[in-house]
Amino acid sequence: MNSNVLQTPIVYLKGVGPNRAETLQSELGIHTYQDLINLFPNRYIDKTQYYKIGELQRTSSDIQIVGKIVNIKTVEQKKGKRLVAKFIDDTGEMELVWFRGQKWIRENLKLNIPYVIFGKVNWFNGTFSMPHPEMELWEDHEKGLKIYMQPVYPSTEKLANKGITNRVTNKLIQQLFLETKGRFKETLSPGLISELSLISKAEALFNIHFPKNQELLAKAQFRLKFEELFYIQLQLISKNLMHKQKIKGYNFDKVGTLFKTFYEQHLPFELTNAQKRVIKEIRADLGSNAQMNRLLQGDVGSGKTIVALMTMLLAIDNGFQACLMAPTEILANQHFMGIKDLLGNIGVNTALLTGSVKKSARKLIHEQLENGELHILIGTHALLEDKVAYNNLGLAIVDEQHRFGVAQRAKLWHKNDIPPHILVMTATPIPRTLAMSLYGDLDISTIDELPPGRKPIKTVHRYDSNRLKVFQFIRDEIKKGRQVYVVYPLIQESEALDYKDLMDGYESIARDFPMPDYQISIVHGKMKPADKDYEMERFVKGETQIMVATTVIEVGVNVPNASVMIIESAERFGLSQLHQLRGRVGRGADQSFCILMTGHKLSLDSKTRLETMVGTNDGFQIAEVDLKLRGPGDLMGTQQSGVLNLKIADIIKDNDILKTARYHALKILREDISLQKHPVILHAYTQLVKYKNIWNYIS
Fold first, then answer.
1. Contact by Cβ (8 Å): 673, 683
2. Can you tell me the distance from the alpha carbon of 33 to that of 11, in angstroms, rounded to the nearest whole number?
3. Nearest partner of 626 among 580, 568, 587, judged by Cα
């Protein structure tokens, strides 16, 4: 059919009109016929069977019955009135009841004419009744499209108030199918349809709205979910492959003196197999003549910094500079100190550039950067400023990349004539399904093992009633020379929330751990940066044994001597946050502990989070549970939500379909990157790029 018909404004569909059109636009984003056809049901009610009144059971389920109304009466009740109709068939009688809209209903009901009624059946005072049934004359029911599985569409309070009920939505979609005659353009190639035994696009759209049975519904759902995920994967993979073909990268073809010297003389421990594998993947990218665009993910403490440093040394050995950008001054500082310490005196000039760096020092950094004396620049957003000009930037590393917007990262591209190689790192493990959907255009490397000698952190859940025992445990650990974090969710008391807050907690800790025997640091987001740094420095140097803090230490100082993490009101934190906080300990050779403190009242989700934390240290397992609890949008933040604005597929439940879609997209593009041999897919893909949303064109 002519696809332009589907771009017809919804106001012109019979049964809509200006008022309904305005409501559909504001509430559901339905502007055109196209948008309405792609309003997919949330669930279905089985209407494959007509029940007899004599067969009814006391199950409170939704059913449909054919019968007649033989009389109508108004019944007075304590508050207001109710309208009651006697409804009969050849096996018995029941009541239909209305508590509102009675005048209009009474005027429109027809006696002794067959109706099909649908609704929930109740048993009351020895009689079956159906409150506010859906009703349709048998004559109209016979003429209309047979909807055996009743679709239930997304709705809002405003839609209901404006009279756009589920039944009205259904009627509008029926009208749309009648106007278009159900002819919808095919968007997948015959080969793909045949190989996967898919039903046609037209059949799929019809059966998603008007399925005759469960089997046809399942086929329609699979077809449309596959298609949605297939085109998203096609877009991501195509972008990646085209990127490698079109965007040249600097060729780092040699492994030079600095890399070898560091590897042989300065590496503090043997690299894990995972680290070796990742470095090999990165080296292959750097020598491919294409720009590297790689995501490096690894759990807290898995050794991403060593991999980043060795990659920077490869750049320097090949005559280039490198930069590392972190989201906070604390993290940038930590990277700077850690990398300087690792490099020792092998002749690599490294500098730190953040908002706190004084003007005189900043001037020197700019000069050395431009004349090439400075090899590695580590810093925050300050690295993106226009006045930060490099002599020859060949590698840009972005840490905790989800905290930076796409536009910010893109600024790094323009810091040299040919874009530098890009390595983005994250300590937030991303489930494979999510990574395939969000970062399908990046190559992904994963460090999935911890360095040798690291003992798994022991995690326990304790209730507030066990606090005295927990305090005794803290004393015992401090006696051994260890340090302790105590983290709170709030800075000041919130009347609405009955949770421990930081200041109250600090006073409690100070009472139980008095000076001069114990020294306590306190850190929170409302402190001045200088005060915060001073308190953190005291803890890093071991001058204080206890650090009372909010989540500002989630990414921050690396204190190998800190072996205990107490998280107060742990039920208030998300899983990934709990896991990140736990990762602040366990960085030395000693056994470390994480104690999750809560009250006794816990929601089901809170219990699941706590059990998961106690049960595993594996960040990827934790991320999978987090994805199921919170959903992809919440997990990734707003800047990625557009990628996952899925109409019908669910990347958690439809994991297998996603894998199938990715496999076929990859296979097709590897054989035919321009899609010339797949004209149907090429046409659909061209429209996708044009409209930025597959459901804008796919019908």
1. no
2. 9
3. 580
237-264 pLDDT tens trace? 888 787 777 778 888 988 889 999 998 8
Consecutive H or E run containing 350: strand 350-353
Low-confidence ranges of the chain (pLDDT < 70): 1-4, 59-61, 144-148, 401-409, 431-441, 453, 490-500, 552-557, 631-645, 691-699
The dihedral region occupied by 347, where left means phi > 0, alpha psi between -120 and 50, and beta the remainder, is: left
Cα distance between residue 597 and residue 463, in whole Å: 6
Angstrom distances, CA of residue 234 to CA of 441, 590, 665: 10, 48, 5
The answer to whether 15 touches 164, Cβ cutoff 8 Å, is no
Nearest to 448, CA basis, from 586, 632, 278, 655 = 278
Residue 533 has which token pair?
């740094």
The confidence score (pLDDT) of residue 643 equals: 46
Residue-by-residue DSSP string for 639-660: GGGGGG--SS--TTTTHHHHHH
Residue-wise pLDDT for 185-240, tens only, equals 899 999 999 999 999 999 999 999 988 877 888 899 999 999 999 998 888 888 87
Q: How many CB atoms lie within 10 A of CB 332?
A: 25
Q: Are 626 and 575 in contact (CB under 8 A)?
A: yes
Name which of 294, 221, 211, 290 is nearest 252 in CA terms: 290
Q: Which helix (H) or strand (E) holds 69?
A: strand 62-76
For residue 362, which amino acid is it? R
Q: Which amino acid is at 383?
A: L
Please answer whether residues 234 and 669 qualify as being in contact, where contact means their C-beta atoms are separated by less than 8 angstroms: yes
Q: Residue 515 — left, alpha, or beta (φ > 0 → left; ψ -120 to 50 → alpha)?
A: beta
- Give the pLDDT score at 2: 53
Token pair, residue 556, equals: 């921050």
Q: 391, 370 in Cβ contact below 8 A?
A: yes
Instruction: Kindly report, residue by residue over 627-671, the tens digit of the pLDDT.
Output: 777 765 544 443 343 445 678 888 777 878 988 999 999 899 988
Distances (CA, A) of 484 to 299, 325, 333, 594: 22, 29, 22, 10
Could you tell me which of 184, 192, 188, 232 has the C-alpha nearest to residue 208?
184
pLDDT the model gives residue 100? 84
Torsion of CA 252, 253, 254, 255, to 10 degrees: 60
CA separation for the pair 250, 268 (Å, rounded): 30
Q: Is the C-alpha dihedral spanning 13, 15, 18, 21 positive or negative?
A: negative
Q: Determine the length of the chain.
A: 699
Q: What is the CA radius of gyration of the chain?
A: 32
Q: Is residue 491 exposed (0-12), middle (13-18) or buried (19+ Cβ within 10 Å)?
A: middle
Separation CA 678–CA 685 (nearest Å): 10
